[in-house]
Amino acid sequence: MFKKLTTNLENLFTMTQKHNKHVQPIREVIRGERAATDLADMGITLEFIDGTWHIMAPHLEPVKLQISDIAHGLVKYRSVPKDLQKWAGLLLCGSGFIDLSDCEIQTGWDLLLNALWDAMDTGAFSDSALHLAEELAK
Predict the structure, then answer these.
(1) 8 Å CB contact between 69 and 27
(2) Half-sphere exposure of 88 (CA within 13 A, CB side)
(3) Helix (H, G, I), strand (E, B), or coil: what is residue 37?
(4) Which residues, in sequence order, are bridge partners of residue 47?
(5) Fewest C-beta in 10 Å: which of 51, 62, 76, 106?
(6) Secondary structure, 3-state, 77-115
(7) Is 123 left (phi over 0), alpha (psi -120 to 50) or beta?
(8) Which residues in 1-138 belong to E strands, given as ranges?
């Protein structure tokens, strides 16, 4: 019984370490501080085919993001429409490795979420969303 409990705790510790190791690099990709291709180093495979992301993120607990992480990315990619489209699509399709639930309860989330949808669709978003993103990114 003790050996099984010890093994379970060791497995939990290993999974926690693996998750914690990926939190910062994933957050950096979302913030636009790292290339999305760096996700491959964490076992996350990305393919952008015909305007759609195909994402596989095996064995990872999704990383909880803050609204400021999204704001940083919006500010970073705003002037490069093609990159903005891909980045926004990555966020909106990335539920296998990111968790936006904390963002949903933060002030301004609706505006930034609409900005993500607009960015994915057109490569641009509203000035009001940009203003909010710039404020949150400070």
Answers:
(1) yes
(2) 26
(3) helix
(4) 54
(5) 51
(6) HCCCHHHHHHHHHHHHHCCCCEECCCHHHCCCHHHHHHH
(7) left
(8) 45-49, 52-56, 63-64, 98-99
- 103/126 Cα distance (integer angstroms): 19
Tokens of 102: 């904390």
Would you state the pLDDT for residue 51? 73
Q: How far apart are CA 135 and CA 47, in angstroms?
A: 32
pLDDT of residue 9 exceeding 50: no
Calculate what percentage of the chain has a pLDDT beyond 70. 84
Both tokens of 112, joined, read 């930034």
